[in-house]
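Q: Two folds, back to back.
A: First:
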Amino acid sequence: MTREGKRSSMAVQIDPNSGLKIFNTRAGKASEKIAGKGYSTLSDDSLTSLPEEPVGAVFNAEEQEKYQAFKERRRGAADYMEMKGEFSRYLEDLYSSDPVQREALTDDCEILVVGAGFAGLLLWYKLKNAGFEDVRFCEKGGDVGGTWYWNRYPGIACDVESYSYFPLLEEMGYFPTMKFASGFEIMEYCQKLAEKFGFYDKCLFHTTVEKTVWEEEHQSWLVKTDRGDQMKARYVILANGLLTTPKLARIEGMETFEGDSFHTSRWNYNVDLKNKRVGVIGTGATAVQVVPEIAKVVKELYVFQRTPSSIDVRDQRETTQEEIDQWKSEPGWAKARRARFAKISSGRTALKANDEYLAGKVADFKERKQHARELSAEEMMAKQLDTNFRIMEQIRTRVDNIVEDPEIAQSLKPYYPYGCKRPAFHDEYLPTFNLPNVNLVDTAPSGVSMINEKGVVHEGKEYGLDVLIYATGFKWMEAATFNMVQGRGGKTLQEKWQEKGTQTFLGIHSNGFPNLFIVAGPQGGGGSFNFTDALEVHGDYLVWLLETMRAKGATAVDVDKAQEEAYVEHCKQVDIQTSAFRDCYSYYNGEGKAEPGSLSYYGGGRWHKYRVHAQETLEPYIFN
């Protein structure tokens, strides 16, 4: 037998103890060049603190008009395209060695999960502990990690504090090295999780699910993949994340560029940026982390910006030995910290991550104001918008205090409600624009107009480049999987939602798609500003549901159409009621095109009321 044949035969084996198939399909790392760090620790207080809050500043009619003008100038400017045809090369996996060769599978399993990021890893831990062993995972990448597998650009870090974000810290006996961990540390942690809990034996890597069809006669799903698999699964769980599909800005002539180019989610470490002329298109959360790092090595950097991000302070720090010693003496410390984090209702407060509160040293995360009378919903919103406005004023003042060129500073100031676009945090991004080799090209309001063989052309000026990097982000809550799931009657999930808008119950079920469960997808609540919260809650819910079905002897579960419609209407109303906080164009609202209630869930803790009622009464469920 050849070496390749031996490797292929070892890829799929039978566990002698359980009789279940186990896999050995994890790919090797493509290059040791794939390495880096996240946020730096800085000692300069002028960079790690915001200016004083402007006392008495209010979001009055004049300021509202300024925000509206900023928004309307950009109406219709967002034009993105899928990476197909000649642009499909931007989706190639550059992080792993070639896929492990294996036989196509045509067998059965009880549970098939799509995705091997935090959601998949946490699901396996919970399912295994509940006695569900016949579980299989399909992952298009060559290793675990999910978003942290695909996003490995220089400077990548998590904006949720690591002590609350990392799942299963106590079970792992692990303490993150930094308050805001780098993506490289998170990726390594995912690998440690997978090794400790036997995940690698359960996962088919470099395997993309292409079609999932409900077979009524078998009460199960037929799952087809790009590796020729045709597996049957009683249950299918989609756990492939919120931001999984990269997107490109549609720019005339982009296919003609003769230099190197890539998307940040497929960072090409074989391209040496040292002493090169480099362009970055996009200034969202990814670019904010990338720009300060590559500015240190490139000859010339051009940052093409259509809309500025809000750049808040990061104030990174290392985890102290004192903290580690304290946590070692506190059973349940990580879960308690995450529970306190989940109580924070303000996005900025959550992402600032006050240590005194999260460590339990103080009772609340803010000083509560006492009003002479109970405020109406309208009055509460007005006060929140005023607070929001003052935060943005601080952020804009910070730009003036740091950026030396007044014209560049003005271009870097955002005029929209805080959190309307994804907030960014960095203490080195703004100072980067004071460097002699860094150039901001303000392309507002329409963005870059043309690319030719030599570089970017904007307003008649050519910017010659050796390397062009697309930091143009991802589709929000648009997993390609939705178009490949075919339920009762032959209709795909995407077709159903295109006809009526997003239709789910709890964001987890959709009528007509029995035994299909979506983790942390559209309309999915139960979380907080920490994504791991939702994964914990959804994982616990699914274990409860599967145990309930096991006890009932049920083979399939669907949800009642009327219950689904009532939940969908609820999602719509809470979105409309809070829409003033999202009055701009961003991926959160489909660049202004998404129907209310169709993407994120904005009902806060009310999601749990729907979940608890469902679990206590079982009214929404149709068991067979």
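A: Second:
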Amino acid sequence: MNIFLDFETYYNSERGEKNYSLSKLSTEEYVRHPSFEVLGVGVAIDDAEPEWISGDGAEAYLKALPWETSTVVCHNSTFDVFILSEHYGIYPEEIACTQSLSRLIEGVNVSHTLKESCLRNELGEKGDDLKTSDGKHLSDFSPEELESFEQYCLQDVTLCRKLYHHYLAELSKNADREAWQHELDCISLTIKLYTDPRCQMEIDPVFIAGTLARIRREKADFIAESPYGREVLSSNPKSQAVLESLGVTVPMKLSTRTNKMAPALARNDADFLELLNHDAPEVRKFVQARLSVKSTIEETRLEHLASIAGRGPRVPLLLNYAGAHTLRFAGSGGLNPQNFTKTIKQSLVAPKGKVLIECDSSQIECRVLAFLASAPTEPPSDPLLKAFSEGRDVYKQMAGLIFKKDEGDVTPGERVRGKVTVLGAGYGLGAKGLLRSFKTFGVDSTMDEAEACIDTFREQYSSVCRLWDEATECLLAIYQNTTGHISGDGRYTASFGQRPDACRFETDGFLLPTGLKIRYPEISLDSERDETRFNQYSFKFRKGRTRIYGPKVVENLVQNCARNLLTFWLAKLYREPRIDVVLTVHDSVVCLVDSCDEEEARSRIEAIMRLGPTWSAGLPLDCESTVGTSYGSMA
């Protein structure tokens, strides 16, 4: 049974302190706010006519529905299902979200609101009566206003149902049932990370309070030791003047707000951070003091977590399903769990009697890269894929080639150089870029040494280089909007890789196992082959344009294949009865299990993450797991 549902709630868009709306508050803050009020809810069961249930009668009606055997379908399910959870204690067994399906099927370049999604697919027009409810409690509506508002809500339910069936039809005609069922399962799981306490970690408020106190104390100490006050340290013009008085050429950048050059003095400006290594101690101290007055992302997120802890013990983590161009998850909700620091991880703990298990797919992008580039032979003939199949350490292998020694004689420091080379050079990185990567990893090197590393990689793994060239030809085919081959008869063809079941080129993009495509819309050729030896293109991306070239396409497709493997694993884990997924970050999965089931669950999770879908036959997979009661201290 499908239950199509849409809540209408009180909001107030008035400016200032009275503003109570989702434009100002997160979903969690809004739904848990003292001002929260359900005005009513529109519900449709399967194909039946939708009906309006007033807020004062919603609880009895909703609790009578068979949630254990139904799928609840909403447009923004994070919002509606969070209301079910928080205010009615209802935790649906299955959840579908048409907004998530819109991102998955229609990509990141379009709006995913209910209004725009329905207009784009010619399913009907959404009303605008919501504006008339601004600032009104249920008791404030006149009978005529309430009737109009009810019809507005019921129209939304009808549109959501049409959109859901439209997207299901799109999925089912483009992919086999198992593939799109995995997508639906993963959408359900993703919504549960935010709405179901069983899929959430707890917050350690004592740890957060202590950590924030330490951060603030250290900042105060830096500022107190500085001869410059907070007013100077917080001001860009005054900080620029101080640095210039100390003989520093202030780094500049193009402001995205004014489109003019401006001082690059933010904590994420690399040239400004480089001044922390300046020869003059006065400069180093000033930069450190300025950084101290600026709130760090970590500090802001810890404050956010402390705020959440004041409203509930467990943390809802919001991920945007298929939120990236490669269809990977994207972080959202003000916390962005895709890039938590170790300190933030330490503030998230398992509930009493539970443990956390994190399982990380080993070197997945490098494995997929070798897989796409190599011919499907048994045993593998490609040296990189062969090394993975034999369980060898590919980083040691590369270091042995670089230093011309046996793998067994490679030192830990030399292995790091091999690792950075393998991870960087796979996507066309040149010697300059590799030298920067070496510096990031603390590896001393020269340009000549970096060039030698790049040459060694390209000689040893020539199949990867061919993949870059094939991707470059595919971009040209997309640019010309044809699959004919440029030759004597004027035809143009292009092909990509050795694994068409995993990814293959078609006229306007790359076809994926799900039947969906990675596309590069409105592509333009910005420059012919330059010093990188690749044509430089750009394509429409969200509200702007972004650069694309052969090796970058390879990176996109590798990451999509890794994402499709992750979807496969998550869908399998979603159906495991004693394992609750609480987070996924890139190529790792974090699960919550009973302490008494730790060993068995860990073995089961690892076994699942060594499996792959049909298209990945011949891809050697591996993983490793860690266990702990805190997300930040697992071993």
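Q: And?
A: The first helix runs from residue 27 to 31.
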